[in-house]
Structures are given as C-alpha cells and as structure tokens.
Amino acid sequence: MAGEGVFTTTVVGSWPRPSWLIAELRRKNRGEITYEQFSEVADEAVLLAVKYQEDAGVEVLSDGEQRRDNFYSFVADKLEGIKLMTVAEVMDFVKDKQRYEELLRRLDVPAFAIKSPVAVATIRKKRPIALDELKFLKKHTKSRIKIPLPGPYMLTRASWIDPVSREAYWDREDLAKEYVKLLREEIKALAEAGADFIQLDEPTLTEVVYGGESSQTFMCAALFSKTDPTEELKFATELVNKVVQGISGVRIGVHVCRGNWSRAEGSLLSGDYKPLIPYFQEMKIDQLVLEFATQRAGELKVFEGVSGIKELGLGVVNPRTDEVEPVEQIIAKTKEAVKYFDPDKIYLNPDCGFGTFAESPVNKPKIAYEKLVSMVRAAEQLRKEYGG
Ligand SMILES: [Zn+2]
C-alpha cells in the first residue's frame, strides 16, 4: 500500500453538516427531491469537509459522510427492501414500552432523530453503497481516501426486527448472508476504484460487552436479540471475516467505539477493550480504529503481550468536547501506544466522527478543525522524534 509513513493522520468519518444540507436532507426524506438531487447539493458540502481536512493537514480523509443521514441508516437510500424507522416506530414492537422509554431518556437518545434501517423485504441494490462517494472525492482531491462502511454485524443487528423482517429473512443469519455479499461486492468495487482505506463500523460490539440487560437499545439495535455475548462476538467476528476474506490491495479497518450520539459522557458506555481483544485478534483486518481520548475507553495497557493485531488507529481527540486537546497531550497518548505498536503501525485519528447523526452533530466545524490541527501537529513532532 502506497504512501506509508509513521503516525499517519486520518479521521473516523463524519463531519458536521451545514444547515442548508440538513434542510435538503429533510426534503429528500420527505420525498420532495430525489437522492440524485440531494446528492448534487451534498457535493458542495463534501468539498467543504474536504477543505477543512486538507487545511488541517490530515493525510487520509473522508467525505465527512455528508450524503448520509447517519453512518448506517443511509443504506436505505442505496438498498431496496430497507425501510427507515424511528426509534419511536420501532418501539411499536417493544413489549415493555414504559421501561424502554425510560431507558431512552436515561441514555439521552434522541428518539425521533435517530432512524434505523429495517429489513422489510428482500434486499436489492438500487445504487452502489459508497462508490458514488469515492468517485466524487477522486475528482476533487489527491489525498488518500478512507471510506467508512457500516459493518456486517451492526447492519444485521440493527435491521433484523421480528416480526417485520421475518417474511424476507427467516432469521438474522439469513439476513447477514445478504449483507456479507453486498459489502464484499462494494469493497471490491471501492478498492478497484482507488480507495485507500475501507473502515467497517462496528460500534455496537462494546454494547454487547458493556450494555448489559438494561441498555439493549444502543442505537436502536438488537431489541429482541438478547443472546449470550460470547455468541454475539463470535458471530460478529465471523461476519467481518466473511466480508474481507481474500480481498487485497486496500487497507481494511474496523472501528469500535462506545457510541457517539450525545455529549453527556455519562450516558455513553464505559469499559476497556480487553474483553474484545480475543475477537480482534481473530479478525483478518489491517487496522483497529479505536477510541482512546475518552477515559471511558480504558487504558492502552490492554495491548500488553497481545499479538496478531497489525495496526492501531489511535483515538487522540474527543469529538464531543469544546476543549481542543493540546499537542503535548496527544504526543503523550501516542507514546503510550508506542509501547505496544511500532510507529509505522500507528495511525492517529479522532475517537469517532464529529457528526455521526446529521440532526445531532457532536461538534462544530471550527472546533473539529482545531482538533485535527492539533492532531496533525502532534504527528509532525512525533515524526521528528521517531523518524519517517
Ligand atoms: Zn465511533
């Protein structure tokens, strides 16, 4: 893979969308304009997101997910057979509504803002999942490009809902097969068209471990599938491996965080990556893109004596705060990571996106930009020390 260095800087994906884009997004969701009409407006927002990242000096950039209403529900624009349902609509299928509502309040989930893609019929591709995003970026930047994709476990978990999905897909495994096929096709097409980095987003893996009985609603997913966490993690690992098996010529990462829907840190999950490490070791991927700026993610020490993990995408800035992390703080965090990974195996990135959900971005472009600048400066200083 070309252009390797030490402490390569990148992003996780999303960028806060301009208000005029959100207005158009709403029009698209109401059916007043087509995806293509919306996408033309989004082109301008993508250029802005790219400009911010390039000005900050980020080396591997994204399109800020400007065409997506969030990192996974956007598949409803791309796939037939998927219907977007709000948390409130999904709630119609929940038995204990009162408990569920209390939970949503406690977790600070914007119940009417977050929509989940639910499989309601046989899924067929209407449009490429992300190839349009890549093609536009290729025309407008010479930088290396990361394309985030919703991971197969996350997609399956969010979109198989009993009984609405059952007619088309008898069980989750059945639906998972469909997503594996679609994601493989997409990744191959993206690699061929020159994507440098594909990132599979699997944020709900931490929920499997730390969500417990009481927060089965993390991102509206898995309302009905309270199964053994070990089985879930095995299932997720298997799906990731089926998606990436035999694909080469592009860096493939998996991103795992603890949710990014709220600035109320107390409402997001806590717990280190330790219980996930055996599964990470099994994943046939190039890089783990993890959050470490937030204290809720625990210590880097979990990697002590751990083999089989090729690269770490190290989260060094918290997307949900106004304080810009000082360069020295980022350097110190990175030096911790150097104990467990070689400098050329460490990427620097924010913990997550800055605008995961279109309607509830966790930061403003100005602050997001300053955080990227701080990260890039830290990388420059680190390179002086470690070479490359
Ligand atoms: Zn994340």
What do you see in this structure?
- The chain is α/β, with parallel strands linked by helices and 388 residues long.
- The chain has one domain: Alpha-Beta Barrel (TIM Barrel).
- The protein is 40% helix and 15% strand.
- It has an eight-stranded parallel β-sheet with strand order 1-10-9-8-7-6-5-2.
- Strand 7, helix 11 and strand 8 form a beta-alpha-beta unit.
- Helix 1 runs antiparallel to helix 2, helix 2 crosses helix 13 and helix 7 packs across helix 8.
- The longest helix is centred in the first third of the chain and has 22 residues.
- The protein is globular.
- About 3% of the residues have low confidence.
- This is Vitamin-B12 independent methionine synthase.
- InterPro entries: Met_Synth_C/arc, UROD/MetE-like_sf.
- GO terms for molecular function: 5-methyltetrahydropteroyltriglutamate-homocysteine S-methyltransferase activity; zinc ion binding.
- One of its GO terms (biological process) is methionine biosynthetic process.
- Pfam families: Meth_synt_2.
Q: What portion of the residues fall into strands of 2 or more residues?
A: 5-15%
Name the shape in a single word: globular
Order of strands in the sheet with the most strands? 1-10-9-8-7-6-5-2
Total domains: 1
Q: Profile the largest sheet.
A: 8 strands, parallel
Give the number of helices. Answer: 13
Q: Fill in the CATH topology.
A: TIM Barrel
Proportion in helices: 25-40%
Given this structure, which CATH class is correct? Alpha Beta
Write down the Rg. 19 Å
Mean pLDDT across residues = 91
First-last Cα distance: 16 Å
What is the element string, with H for helices and E for strands?
EHHEHEHHEHEHHEHHEHEEHEH
Structural class: alpha/beta
